[in-house]
Design a protein that fits this description.
single chain; 283 residues; alpha/beta; Muramoyl-pentapeptide Carboxypeptidase, domain 1; 6-stranded mixed sheet; two-stranded antiparallel ribbon; 10 strands; 37% helix; globular
């Protein structure tokens, strides 16, 4: 027969197991949800939380998975050990998979910043696009982009706080860490469909005046101030440092993809000016 002490230990163990089971059941119930996008397949990920400080989505962030297949990416995005997720994954064939409810905070942006906001996850919806990224320069499949466009249009129609300057790439909000969705992502076509903001880029000739890393002076400071005004996380120092180079590459990949070299040239400056003029309507 068990002693009183043994009985207490057994009772505590039983209660502990019951509490763990209850917590796991609660987590599973919270992970289950109805698809926000009609037609999306549900593959609930455990990697999410509540949006902080009452924040609601006013950004839409595009990513690519940089993995061999959508299946491989889906496994990672639903693996509790990975600590990463997104609200949606768009497979190569255009199938849309929802992983996290839009009302919840998915873990897709990481350390990021846009227009004064450093908790990008709490105020954004993230779309992962199954895209291997290698070999470099390969186009996204047309049916996949069609699905991304339709999904984004639906999200924007339901979340009217997301304005065109807040439809961004992961590289825009984390330029030193990320390069997705890359220079081959069709931002121009997306903007024509009402997804994001895009100004016709001034052609890049690769000749003439340009500033390279290490340059100093007023021209660098003015360009940095323009990037910061649009939303990028960059200080106005007048020094063309590594941060300025990464942010310049992020800007070029999104808005002047014909040449992504990180140099401050006439084409990049004039394209940014055009963009700021368009963005003024949404301030």
């Amino acid at each position: 027969m068990m002693t009183d002490k043994a009985d207490n230990i057994a009772d505590m163990a039983e209660c502990g197991i019951a509490n763990i089971a209850e917590r796991e059941a609660a987590s599973l119930e919270e992970a289950l949800f109805t698809a926000d996008y009609d037609g999306a397949l549900l593959r609930p990920s455990p990697n999410f939380g509540d949006r902080r400080d009452g924040k609601q989505p006013y950004m839409l962030i595009m990513h690519y998975t940089a993995m061999a297949t959508a299946e491989e990416a889906e496994l990672r995005l639903t693996d509790p050990q990975s600590q990463v997720s997104a609200h949606y994954l768009v497979r190569e064939d255009g199938t849309i998979v929802q992983l996290v409810a839009e009302s919840k905070r998915a873990w897709h942006a990481g350390l990021a910043f846009w227009r004064g906001e450093s908790d990008v996850n709490s105020c954004s919806i993230g779309i992962e696009i199954a895209y291997a990224a290698e070999p470099a320069g390969q186009p996204y499949p047309a049916r996949q982009i069609k699905a991304v466009r339709a999904l984004a249009q639906d999200i924007l129609a339901r979340h009217t706080a997301i304005k065109p300057p807040y439809v961004l790439g992961h590289s825009d909000v984390a330029p030193e860490r990320k390069i997705d969705p890359g220079a081959t992502f069709p931002w121009r076509k997306m903007a024509r469909a009402g997804v994001g903001l895009y100004a016709p880029p001034v052609p890049a000739c690769g000749c003439g005046w340009a500033l390279s890393p290490g340059a100093r002076g007023r021209a660098v400071a003015v360009f940095q101030a323009m990037l910061a005004r649009y939303g990028y996380d960059i200080g106005v120092t007048g020094l063309f440092d590594s941060r300025t180079e990464w942010v310049t590459k992020a800007f070029q990949a999104h808005f002047r993809p014909a040449r992504v070299d990180g140099r401050i040239d006439i084409s990049t400056i004039q394209t940014l000016r055009r963009l700021l003029a368009l963005a003024a309507a949404f301030v």
